[in-house]
Fold each of these.
Amino acid sequence: MTAHKASASHEETTRGSALLTNAVGLHARPSVKLTQLAKTYQAIVSVATEPTGPWIDAKSPVKIMRVKAPKGTTLYFEASGEDAVSAVAALVDLVERRFDEAEEEGHG
Amino acid sequence: MANVGIVIVSHSAKVAEGAADMVRQMVGDEVPLAWAGGNSDGGLGTDVGHILAAIDAAWSAAGVAILVDLGGAETNSEMAIEMLDEARQKRIAICNAPIVEGAVIAATEASGGSPLDIVKQTAEELYPQ
């Protein structure tokens, strides 16, 4: 899945998206990994399942776990702040790597 | 900066150990983690001494968040906390959250370096106020 990143300056929002291709989608373990990764950046990072939102705080494990996006959902990322570009790139990469648990099905 | 530690206190050793396994597998090794479950005879119940040992094992300069299941797990955890010196008492919080989900969520929050009050608050988001 391709990701689209566009950023003009630190003041602007960086955006990206990636298709959930792992079997369980954004369930418990992937949610934990996503929030853990988001927390390593200073940027404000949000996730949505539609390009127009609603936007959810990517650093909140409770809110991310409630998204329960199934396989086949496109996750949209938005970030603002100094390391926003890296944050979006890393999160897109995590989704595209299937959260590093590609063949581990049934472990939600 | 050290991450907040997580202590799981259940009436059942199996529940406590199982919840701890879930934290380790889902969140990883970045957070100090310990559990106490069962009474001193190995039956269902909680034991202040076991809880104190778990607090010691998961101790962190950033503090410890405790997840409990039913009544006695909470009151015995409170007793254990009262037996510690004041400086440590201030760095321990019992979370009002479901034990398994709360442990995973608290550990996830703690693994990002969040302070104790934020770890507790995040776990407690599981029960919408």
Amino acid sequence: MRFLVPGALGLTALAGPLVVLYMLRSKRRPQEVASTMLWREVGEPVSSAVPWKRLKLTPLLLAQLAVLALFVLSLARPFVSEATVLGPHTVFVLDTSGSMAMAGRFDQARVVALDLAADVSEANLASVVEAGPRPRVLVAFSGDGEAVADAIAGLTPGGGSADLSSAVRLARGLAAPDRDTSVVIFSDGGDGPLAEEPVIGATHLRFDDIASNLAISAFDAEPSAEGAVRTFIQVDNHGPEPRDVTVAFEVDGLAAGKTELSVPGLDAARQVVPLEAGPASSVTASFVDHTDALDLDDRAHLVVGGGQSSSVAVAGEGSLFLSALLASTPGVAVADAPGAADILIVDGGPLPDIDRPTWLIRPEQAPEGLDLVGLERNLAVTFQRPGDPILDGVDLSSVSIAEAQAVEGLTWLPVVSSGPVPLLLLGEVEGHRVAYTTFDLVHSNLVVQVAFPILGSNLIDWMRGGEAGSVSAEAAGTPIGLVTPSGRRAVVELPSGEVAELTADAGLFTNTDEPGIYRVSYLDEAGTVTAGEVAVRHFVSTESAGVSRDIAVSAGPSGAGQEGNLIREWAPWVIGLALVLMAVEWWVGHQRPGVRRRTRREATA
Amino acid sequence: MLLEPRFRARLERLSLGVKGRVSAQWAGRHTSTRLGESLDFADYRPYQPGDDYRRIDHNLRARLGVLMVRQFEAEQELPIEIVLDLSGSMGLYDKHQSARRLAAMVAYLGLAGGDRVRVWAIPGDRGRPEVQGPSGRHLSAWPQVEAWLEKRPVAGTGSLRHVGRRLAGSGGSVVLVSDLLMDGWRDVLDGLAPTAGGLVLHLLAGEELDPTLAGDLDLSDVESGAKVPVSTTEEVMGNYRTALEEFATEAARRSRRAGLDYLLVQSGPRAEERALSGLARGAIVR
């Protein structure tokens, strides 16, 4: 045992005056009694010439000396030092990717993290970062061990991949200037991209238990000519032994059939299974009587698409590039008359009435909510909104534009821009999704790049989205983009059955780590519900392998990230014991053994 | 008013028990040391000229041929001498209030039973050791007795020795209401040998039974002014309690040896009711 303030031990000298007080005779107080007859023989010999008396070790004196000793001890702040990875400020980074659900990895990580969280104090602050598909800070700079433990206990692995690089960057961003910050990464390492340089001031606690695992790695459906759907299923075997497995299908919650698959070791088996399912039906495939190391990938979901194509018409100048785009986009039928089309593309010319989803390409007037303030020339793309589904797989870094409109508006979302000049904006007019390209496509090199058909297809998908029955399927963790009609709020039903009501201005729903079907609907003030899109989030198949690896780490300049010492103070316990002893001392000081029972009984009978 | 009306009504249904025979002047309801005219047969004696012919036992004369006359018990009043200690020590902790009520209780019991009651108090006036109060045989004397007991002041140093000598062998019952906290208390109890027994009501305050004194003290005797330095250690307080226990035990033993009943009473409100319960349990009051 050592002391943080050893000098305080000098206060034990106070025991001297305390003992002297017990040896000194106090001045006697006069007290009148009925008779001194009974007191004559009971008093101890008194000599007024001697101001002190022989010290008697009474229980009272011993209790007071013990209380004094304990208070001095608490002021000296005794402590023991224990080895720990906790530093003055520790950031817990917990990997919640799908692979952490394998063989109890995350449960082990949580136990270790909770054990460390028990030592969090004002001297050892902690922050918690969830390393999922979209890393986020759950607790920052907290000395409250209970809050830290609550945040850790509330985490569960999802079905997505962890963005460990972003999570570590987020953790490093929590570094405080006045405290050494260390990062503890609870992860299997995963197989996602990591920074090449070691993470400075970090510790990687690797959880890499692994066991045999079968996973549904692909599940899709396509309408067949017979009016039913053909589902395609692929099962991966991540173990060396061949396995037979039965897959059961449910359509809208009702059993719809089974199929047997024999999967060779470290290989995959595929099968096409016809099912009686109509458009917008929910289909679930799951293993029957099968347990393995990872449960999350033993089920897969899909929603059968509408089975009908959207008609798209082009108004205005049009171009060969637009025609080629529409011809190559699946589920799109080109309409000759704009009035009958589901989606309208306006290429130049005057701004029409917006009565359906519309893609405006450099119209002569800006739509509602935007002000046309001028023209800009010779532009290059400098900004692509990160994570936006419209730009999924789209690289616009080499796009050059001859001339674009300069527009201003607060209600439109710029997703591509050149400096302050927006090039592609998303918005809503009269309750319809509208994409607005501020430049003429043929006055740019975009139309000759591979990004063009992808961007066009994404834009048409987006414009079709938000409508009842439209389906999008992405990896777990991918946000669901929302364009909420004005005056309404989005409501999302999660796969677990939980319902999340979002604020009116919410543009994204990010809580999509759980694989399954998310149903969006919109609620107006009168309580009217309008069905929205259906989003399927599937388990990321690469997580099923349970790949693990070490994350390169190194100690920080002040030793942060290395195992250090945790100071565990005893003062609270010592003070508690002192208070108990004070209570005992008070009792000893005030207790008066009563007059003998018989005498008292006789007198008061 | 020393006694509540309800308590007095309760006392009227009770009477003091007498252990021995009384020796008094007037007829009453207690068996006398002399023979008399009651209905209770006592003894025979040879006929002597002048005896009442009606007392000759003719059955005995026919059987034995001798003239014998029947003798009967005499019944006399019980003289009750109540001695109330109003010395300085009784003034502490208001013990004298309880003592007055205890004395009044015994006096009322006697008057209600038709006994001759006489009250005494120590110390007396103008340096005399005791003072005699009013006496009476009927409840008509109660107002006088009550007023005297109520107004008698607490003062000075008291000794029971003198009044004890006066009452010893008086033939009646002696009731002593005192804390006995005085030198010579043993002699007083030893010297009391009343014919018809008596009673010691030993009155002590709660503070005397279980003192709450603390610290180093100079104890001063309220009567004599004598001082005793005391440090109230646990050992000293334990010794005091032992001395008190012995004091009470010895007082009880000496009282009984003198033919007196003994009751230790804690002063305070309703002390007379507690005392009456104790007396009833000991069959001193019936």
